[in-house]
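Issue 218. Parser rejects a valid record. Input:
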Amino acid sequence: MNYFITFAKILITMKKLFTTLFVLGFGFLTPLLAQTENTDQETGNLECTSITVGSKASADGSVYTSHTDDSHRTRTNILVIPAQDHPAGAVVKMYKRQSAKEVYGKMSHYENIELGSIPQVAHTYKYFSTAYPCMNEKQVAIGESTFSPRPELQSDSGLIDCQRLCQLMLERASSAREAIKIAGELLKKYGWIDGGEALTIADKKEVWHLEIVGPGKGKMGAVWVAQRVPDDHVAVNANASTIREIDLKNKDFFMASDNVYTVAEENGWWNKSKGTFSFAYVYAPESRTMLACRRREWRVFDLVAPSLKLDPNSENYPFSVKPDTLITTQKMMSIFRDYYEGTEYDMRKTLTVTDKDGKTIISPLANPFMKSDELKLHKINGGWHWRGERSIAVHFTVYGTILQCRAFLPDEVGPVCWFALDNVASSIYVPFYASITDLPETYKTDGRATGFSNKAAWWAFNRLGTIAAQRWGDMKPVIDQAWIPMETEFLTNQKSVENQTLQLLNEGKREDAIQFLTKYSIDCGNRAVSKAWETGDLIWTTFDGRW
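Output the parser choked on:
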């Protein structure tokens, strides 16, 4: 009997021990689980903005596309992938991106799961490999913005996701039209395995919006449509489908998959008796209901064409608009830094104090990049509901690109990737020419993999933006003092740098010209990173005790 009593006591003790370990284990995991939840909660799956400009809408004949990668999970680095020749039978592996398992003390990130491979072509072009590959040596450039299609369209049978499609187009295409045709052929044969995506594809002459959705569970292929932006217009995609009525007889402005109508008819979403076909409302109707998307569309158009007096609450806007004044690179930068300042949608508007003169002003502690917990604390709601307003500039941006293509310059000089890290409102755009052979070491280093480190450029800008948001009203002027002169210098020097490069090219010194641009790009990047660390130190020191 004593034996059984002793054994029972041991079991009870072990149960208590395991219960304690279980509770402690989950207590240990609590901040990790919160980290995962908060990462996704902040972005709300509305993760990118892309603005496009036709050649006759820009001040100097440039064609632009652009992108802010607002996922806060993607890698932070940019790499140069050189042009390559491939042997017969070579293949390129295909991967599907998915959220990686969370590890305490590590940053949320994606992992790539290999799905298979497709045949490689004999020659691939040099390109910039960002999380979404963005520009090649032939002046083809790609921006991106996710949107929500009908859930029934998600396929589980394809091989190609958005990031791999961007890579394939840049490796193989020398024009925007060619890129779209290549995409259509590859997707038909190997299948799409992603959600709704808008890819804004530019070359040195024109720019197109390509919208893609899946064909449905268990099916191969994709449903897609492409619309060209008129040369004298500006367009935007802000996480909602914007292509509505299409005219496939007008081949200069429209392209589509051969199943664009039949998939809609088979699923009962449209037929001719229901009236005009609208891609957005047939395949992604929910995306047109989201004010957080539509208001960014309005803001971009209102900033470039205020004379139109568009309604910020409209369900739809024109696919593109003619700007009141011609668009410059500097104007593009200013749009991407916008957070509705001076409008009723500025999330700081109710966070006021009385200054020394008795005037009511926005508190210097108020910032336009409040996290979801802060918004709840201050009871701020808006077009993004409890997340407030979804502005163009956001704190969860990983990187931003403004991609400039120019037909009046040779390919060694024409394509420029203006590259910014972290929140564009507290960062700087640095010029990286698409012909260069190398980049600053810190820009090639993925800050998400390193964790906080001075070896990764992203951390210099992330730290600066994070600190500045604690006392935005006082710290933003200090950031402006750092970036405005440097960015103005980069823009002003562009013509001189390019003239020197052209001179080398005219002398037959192509390699020297490319090395000259490489050195210039690296110098610009290194200067920006150094200034970001320096400015972060300055505001930390200057405002000590006030944030």
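Fixed in the parser; the record now loads. The first helix runs from residue 2 to 43.
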